[in-house]
Every structure is written in structure tokens, then in C-alpha cells.
Amino acid sequence: MFRQNKSADAAPEARTAGGRGRSVAEAKRSSTPPRLGFEAIVHAPTSPITGAIGLARRATEYDISVLITGASGTGKELLARAIHHGSSRADRPFVVENCGALPDQLLESELFGCKKGAFTGAYQDRIGLFEVADGGTIFLDEIGETSPSFQVKLLRVLQEGEIRPLGAQRTRKVNVRVVSATNRDLETEVAAGRFRRDLYYRLAAFPIHIPPLADRAMDIPPIAERILKDVNQAFRRAVPGFLPQTLDLMMAYDWPGNVRELHNEIQRMVALSDSDQPLGPTLLSARIASPRVQQPAAPGAMLKDRVEALEKAEIAQALARCSFNISHAADLLGLSRVGLRAKMQRYQLRRGEGDDED
């Protein structure tokens, strides 16, 4: 972290590793709004993300750089915000910059500031985000997209704890905690020479990985309910939830876009629904309502497990094609209704109240 003893009230916030620092952090955590803290990260009790949340909670107690890795849309910024709002810096700014969205010169200007006339388009002095975040936290998203030349400049800022705006002669001290994130494997990038090793170790003092939604199927129902609540409010609707078979199909889909894709899908479903009734499977996009038959798991899996995985996928696809009409799906699969129900129970493929019993 950057240390700056420019004011008396900055010191207590910097002492998060000590006893007083921990008590300050705990007091601030108790007053953190639910939608800003760890409570905003919706998950099932058995979810693999609980390990990442546990690490993040420990990171709030100490002023240490955190690197959050994970696929796009997994909630890296949400976790970064939770770390900030659970720390002793919670009452100071939390500033976000997407490092992959700007060319080097503009990124330097955004982060470090600039003087008037420093480059074409610099019509006035500009305060950089590191200075805006002084005393708080800066979140550098997509850090893996930065160029080698920019990495050198960022490394110096992290080493010296000071910035120099573009076109300025003097440096300025800052006291900022850095949380960064990437969807790249930075260790691979370092080995390939595309990311500086010394910068990597500066950023990754405390690494945390967020697993993709494909590995957290149990999280889809609670996340979907939270998203639906927000969409209802935004769209002025009162959709009460999802039919069980809709959730089954959503849990069977791998969600390559993660929570962001799930959010967009639920928005679409609500927009297509004609009444405030539970959302049915017919409102799902075709790629989700008719899932592809997946190949069995790993090559080393037992034959029995591979056959069961294939059978489950075939049954799920048939049920989706028949809108969970059990009689039609049983005919399609060449099974009796009793046999199909038994397999649905075995593979936990639930049916809704409106399904055909005949």
C-alpha cells in the first residue's frame, strides 16, 4: 500500500494490521450497507465461491494488495467493493478504472492526472484517479490488458507511493490501496513475457480466484431471484419468480457470460412475459431452452458415470422440447411415464404443477 503521512487522521486508517486497525475495520463493517458489503454476493451455502469470500473477508483486515481473477461477468468488481467496504478505508473513496478501455496516454492521464497542454486534447489540469482515491481504494479492472510501457509506469507508482501527472515537474504522495482484476492467467502472461514479473508480485500479494457460474449451478436460483427483484423494480413489474422447470434448464446451461449473461436473459424474459406470473421455460432463449447434449465428463471417468451424464442430458433436452409435458417427452424418449418420472427424480429434473399427468 502507499503510505502518506500528510494528515493526522490518515494514520489510523493505515494501521489495519494492528489491534486498533482491526477494531476500526470491524466497526466499519458493522455499518456497511448490505448491497455494498459481502451480503451483496448472492450464493448458496455449499457454493464454491464461499472459499473466495472467506479469503476476501480476511483481506479486509490488512492493508494488502489484492488480485482478483476470474472470467468476465463473475463479479470481480462486486468482490472488490465488498473488500473496500469491509476495510478501515470504507469511509474513503472507492474508484474504478477499466485499464483495457483506453490507450496508454489517456490511461496515464486518467490514473495519474495531467497538466494543461501535456498532450493534444489536454485543455486543462486534470486530477488523476489515484489522487481522487487518496485514503481509499482504487480498483484496476482488466489489468492484464495493459501494455509493457504502461506497466513500467504503474510499477514505479506502486513502489514509490507517489504519482507525477503528465506534464508536471513534481510528484505527489498518495495513500491508496490497490485491488486489481483480470480474466487472464497472469502467471502465463509473465512466463510469455507479456506482463512484468515484478509488477505481478506487487499486485498479487493476496490473490483470490472467483469460479465461473458453470461451476456454481447451485447459485443460479438465488442469483436469479435477486436479479428478478431488481428487474421488477426497474421495469415496474411484479413477476413473482420462476417455474421449477425454468430453473432446471437455467441450471443445466453453462452460462459462458456468467452473471452478466444471466442478468440479460432475465431482463429479456420479463420483457417478453405478458402477465405477472412465474416465468416459464418457453420464455427462455433457444440456446438455454434446448441445451446441447454434452459429452461425458473427463476421459478418465467411469463408463457408468459417462452413460448417466449422457442420459441426463438427453432427458433434459426432450423435456425442454416438450415444455415438460411428461407424456409427450416419454413418447419421444420411448419410455413409460412411470419410467420417465423415476429418471427425473434420479437426476433431479423437477417438473412444474402444470405438467401433464396423463
UniProtKB/TrEMBL annotation:
InterPro entries: AAA+_ATPase, AAA_lid_NorR, Homeodomain-like_sf, HTH_Fis, P-loop_NTPase, Sigma_54_int, Sigma_54_int_dom_ATP-bd_2, Sigma_54_int_dom_CS. The keyword Cell inner membrane does not apply. The keyword Transcription applies. Residues 1-32 are annotated as: Disordered. SUPFAM superfamilies: Homeodomain-like (SSF46689), P-loop containing nucleoside triphosphate hydrolases (SSF52540). It holds the Pfam family HTH_8. GO terms for molecular function: ATP binding; sequence-specific DNA binding. Residues 42-271 form the Sigma-54 factor interaction domain. SMART domains: AAA. GO terms for biological process: phosphorelay signal transduction system; regulation of DNA-templated transcription. Keywords: Activator, ATP-binding, DNA-binding, Nucleotide-binding, Transcription, Transcription regulation, Two-component regulatory system. This is AAA domain-containing protein. It comes from Blastochloris sulfoviridis. The lineage of its organism: Bacteria, Pseudomonadati, Pseudomonadota, Alphaproteobacteria, Hyphomicrobiales.
